[in-house]
């Protein structure tokens, strides 16, 4: 019995389930790809390799949600939906662990994996403020 190869999305979530954030890196042009895909967005190469990223990011934009739309524990209002720009370049929508204060655009964050899962059972990569004890 052979198993089906994982799709790019499945591979991404499989790494997340192990507490690793890996993105596809293009051997053709050096671009990082997110969201996951079959070809590089820049040069269309299929020579993509899953590489760990640094986990460093900055706040690109954010908003505070006050209404309950989802049953996920991570999305119990109020919560922060945050567009972060990874040090490697790609932007991703994520959230900041704590809601005790507003983020600042350009503020440094670091990756955290807590054990919060979304409705699909995916372990979510989230972010925390880089300064400790703020
Ligand atoms: Zn490329």
UniProtKB/TrEMBL annotation:
Q: Which residues form the ChsH2 rubredoxin-like zinc ribbon domain?
A: 13-48
Q: Outline the extent of the ChsH2 C-terminal OB-fold domain.
A: 50-114
Q: Say which domain of life the source belongs to.
A: Bacteria
Please give the InterPro entries that the UniProt record associates with this protein: ChsH2_C (IPR002878), ChsH2_Znr (IPR022002), NA-bd_OB-fold (IPR012340), Thioester_dehydratase-like (IPR052513)
Q: Which residues form a coiled coil?
A: none
SUPFAM superfamilies, per the entry = Nucleic acid-binding proteins
- Transmembrane domains' residue ranges: none
Q: What is this protein called?
A: DNA-binding protein
Q: Which organism is it from?
A: Microbacterium pseudoresistens
């Amino acid at each position: 019995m052979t198993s089906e190869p994982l799709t790019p999305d499945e591979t991404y979530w499989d790494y997340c389930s192990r507490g690793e954030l890996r993105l596809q890196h293009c051997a053709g042009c050096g671009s990082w790809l997110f969201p996951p895909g079959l070809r590089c967005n820049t040069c269309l190469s299929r020579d993509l390799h899953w590489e760990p990223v640094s986990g460093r990011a900055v706040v690109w934009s954010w908003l505070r949600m006050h209404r309950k739309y989802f049953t996920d524990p991570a999305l119990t209002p109020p919560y922060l939906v945050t567009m972060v720009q990874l040090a490697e370049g790609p932007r991703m929508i994520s959230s900041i662990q704590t809601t005790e204060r507003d983020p600042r655009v350009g503020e440094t964050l670091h990756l955290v994996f807590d054990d919060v899962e979304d409705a699909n059972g995916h372990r979510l990569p989230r972010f925390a403020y880089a300064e400790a004890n703020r």
